[in-house]
């Protein structure tokens, strides 16, 4: 779905400090040219033992001046900025030939086209799993297959995440970290109302009954806060579409066809109607975006919220004052007993600007992966954990990181976590239940936006007909977006 500052903070400290979304430099500060021709090597010379001067080899990228514009964290992320400064310092110690320009632009689907047209897009920038097909088809990301194939740690990268940016066998991005949508439960609120904690292998009925049992409309307390504003409303609901066995779209005869107006979609909408009208378990002011819903959970005004886990827990523990034992991370509920606990699989990626020179692209790739699988990265992580201990804060690792959990580096990372008592621990049972389903590759944000309108109508009007709503939504998405796509 989308990336927020709290999620970004967790990513940066857990993912070995890779926050930067850097960039290409088109202001003349680089010696490379836009046609990708070989740049002229600096006139540095080395003197051998005989006293003769030997010119530096022109095919050594470390001997050529390169400028990359990195995406610098926003001013509110002071801790993250300090970490990024440390990364820049360490990178330039190894690559003194690289000039780094800071830029705090955040990827935005409505701005990337303008950035590209004006030659102002960074050398590399962050994006989301949903954007892969869109960016590739627009020609706004570089094919980095050659750089990827030369990368020594590529086989230890988490394949579930990385595969989202491998299209037709070509690599177009590098995973930072990912998530499977989960449900966070405030156990303290359940205990106060005498509501039993459900089994982790829970169902829609279990979620409904838990939410109904905790909700107290007179006190402004909801049992669950499904997002009801912005694209995140459609994103939240899609988990239930997947759990019911539904799909967003399919490819048929070279065309993208909407399929969410199915029996599975009707079941998913009907469940939302139960939460709203039968259980009266959602907030009275239900028009909540991501920040609103997570804020309600942080403030103990709702007992459950659905999102990527680490960002929610970060706020609940370090800003809301909750204790780790109060915050339980569950998979999404199965529609019925024995069903899959399917959650939307998403992630954050770094992609390289195709307009950058070959030298810029290579240095961008080296910067992206600089702390990956490195002892320096582990040392940096250890330093962050030490600082968190000093500050009296908890550290929340992501459920899914850029590396495979069973890789050598994954084991080394766990060993660092095990040294500290302030690292949030997920239940070992959750990993065996998580079932991630990737977001659709075509116009996903447009689909989310359309479904958000459906959710808002359902929450505001009693007696809506789910089938009618979905048919109208599918017609809109099909005619306005999917019909414009030609699949090769």
From TrEMBL:
The keyword Signal applies. InterPro entries: Bact_solute-bd_prot1, SBP. It comes from the Bacteria. SUPFAM superfamilies: Periplasmic binding protein-like II. Residues 24-58 are annotated as: Disordered. Residues 24-56 have a biased composition (Low complexity). Residues 1-19 form the signal peptide. PANTHER family: ARABINOSE-BINDING PROTEIN-RELATED (PTHR43649), SUGAR-BINDING LIPOPROTEIN (PTHR43649:SF16). This is ABC transporter substrate-binding protein. It comes from Paenibacillus odorifer.
């Amino acid at each position: 779905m989308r990336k927020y500052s709290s999620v970004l903070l967790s990513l940066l400290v857990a993912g070995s400090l890779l926050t930067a979304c850097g960039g290409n430099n088109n202001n003349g500060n680089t010696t490379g040219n836009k046609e990708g021709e070989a740049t002229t090597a600096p006139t540095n010379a080395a003197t051998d033992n005989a006293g003769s001067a030997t010119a530096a080899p022109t095919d050594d990228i470390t001997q050529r001046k390169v400028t990359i514009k990195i995406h610098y964290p926003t001013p509110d992320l002071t801790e993250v900025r300090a970490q990024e400064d440390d990364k820049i310092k360490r990178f330039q110690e190894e690559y003194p030939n690289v000039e780094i320009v800071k830029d705090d632009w955040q990827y935005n689907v409505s701005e990337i086209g303008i950035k590209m047209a004006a030659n102002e897009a960074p050398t590399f920038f962050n994006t989301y799993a949903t954007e892969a097909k869109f960016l590739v088809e627009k020609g706004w990301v570089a094919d980095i297959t050659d750089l990827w194939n030369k990368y020594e740690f590529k086989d230890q990268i988490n394949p579930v995440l990385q595969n989202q940016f491998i299209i037709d066998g070509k690599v177009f991005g590098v995973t930072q970290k990912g998530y499977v949508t989960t449900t966070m439960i405030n156990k303290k609120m359940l205990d106060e109302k005498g509501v039993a904690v459900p089994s982790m292998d829970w169902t829609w009925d279990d979620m409904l009954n838990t939410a109904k049992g905790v909700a107290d409309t007179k006190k402004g307390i909801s049992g669950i806060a499904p997002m009801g504003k912005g694209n995140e409303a459609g994103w939240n609901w899609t988990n239930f579409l997947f759990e019911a066995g539904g799909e967003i779209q399919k490819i048929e005869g070279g065309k993208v066809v909407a399929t969410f107006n199915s029996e599975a979609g009707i079941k998913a909408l009907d469940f939302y109607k139960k939460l709203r009208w039968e259980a009266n378990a959602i907030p009275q002011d239900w028009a909540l975006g991501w920040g609103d819903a997570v804020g309600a959970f942080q403030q103990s005004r709702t007992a459950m919220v659905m999102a990527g886990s680490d960002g929610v827990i970060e706020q609940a523990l370090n800003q809301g004052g909750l204790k780790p034992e109060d915050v339980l991370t569950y998979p999404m509920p199965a529609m019925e007993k024995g069903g899959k606990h399917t959650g939307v699989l998403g992630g954050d990626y770094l992609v390289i600007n195709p307009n950058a020179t070959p030298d810029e692209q290579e240095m961008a790739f080296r910067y992206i992966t600089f702390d990956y699988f490195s002892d320096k990265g582990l040392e940096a992580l250890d330093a962050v954990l030490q600082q968190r201990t000093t500050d009296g804060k908890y550290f929340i690792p992501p459920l899914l990181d850029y590396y495979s959990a069973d890789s050598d580096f994954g084991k080394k990372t766990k060993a660092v976590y095990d040294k500290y008592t302030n690292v949030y621990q997920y239940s070992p049972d959750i990993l065996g239940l998580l079932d991630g389903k990737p977001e659709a590759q075509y116009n996903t944000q447009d689909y989310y936006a359309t479904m958000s309108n459906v959710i808002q109508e359902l929450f505001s009007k009693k007696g809506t007909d789910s089938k009618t709503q979905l048919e109208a939504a599918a017609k809109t998405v099909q005619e306005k977006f999917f019909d414009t796509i030609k699949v090769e």
